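Researcher: Structure for this, please.
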Amino acid sequence: MSKQTEVVTEEDAQPPLGRLKKISGMSWVFVSVLLILMGALGYGYFQLAHVNLSLARMAISAKQQAGDAEAGVVALRQSVMALTQAQQHAEALSDRQASIMAEWESAEKGDLDKWYAARAQYLVKLANDQLQFMQDAALAARLLQAAEQTLQFLQGERAVSLRQSLSAAIATIKAMPMTDVSAIYLRLNELSQQIDSLPFPEMPLQAVTSNDVSVNASSATLSWWQRASQSVWQGLRQIVIVQRVQPQNRPLALPEEKRFLFQNLHAQLQSAMWAVLHRNQAVYQASLTQATQWIEKYFDQTAAVTKNLSQNLQTLQAIDLQPASPDLSSILQLFDTYFAGMTSAKPTS
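Model: Predicted structure, token format:
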């Protein structure tokens, strides 16, 4: 009996096969659960990243929509401002139209004096602008004559005073020396074409003097070495020629300098032509003075073309491009006085 018990105890000490299988099954279950949990976690992380990416895209889209909405608000504000300005302009035009209609209504009732006076005043302002800025006396005179004809429809002492002032201004303008800008410009252009034909002065060498002839005649009485030294001296005198230039003699221009001299003269006349078009008296006088000085200094004064060119330049230099013009501000003040008198004479309601 004891032996059997011992045998049973040894068998019991060894692990049964079912227990091992049970442990291995539990480990597989644990691994499977762990794998499932890891897969679930990975899937959840993937879903979370996808959601974050979607949220980021939605945020960017929302920002863009907000920017577009802000731009739309700015454009709407600008449109509102433009509509407000257009409304104000329309209101101003409406007020102006109402004023014009009121003037037409008064004109229909026979009150044309104010209209005639306003038209004459406008013509006088145009004439004054032509005199002060454009120096166009002929056009100013025609404008004043039109204003004088307009004032013929007005009656009263103030209208007579206006017509007398306009008549005096017209007479003063007609007595002014008229400057024909086109004729002066064309004349300068014609003179510029004659510059290239200006001749330069010539300075011929002096002929052999009587002293040289007497020296040659007396050489026959000299010894051979004196005649040899004299012959050498005569040869040297023919090689090197020294002349005394008097102060009144004009300087000679080198061949390569002549072209630049002609170009400078053309430039001076072109500057004078520009001054004529712009009524610039200072530039006009300076250009013609410089051109005249160069012609008198470097070219032959005995030539006919030089004399003709110099005389024409001096004649043009005497022209005044900006003659003193009358000031019409006193006549404009008379118009203001006339309108003030009409306003004070109008009956108040």
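Researcher: Any notable elements?
Model: Residues 17-108 form the longest helix (92 residues). The chain has twelve helices and no strands.
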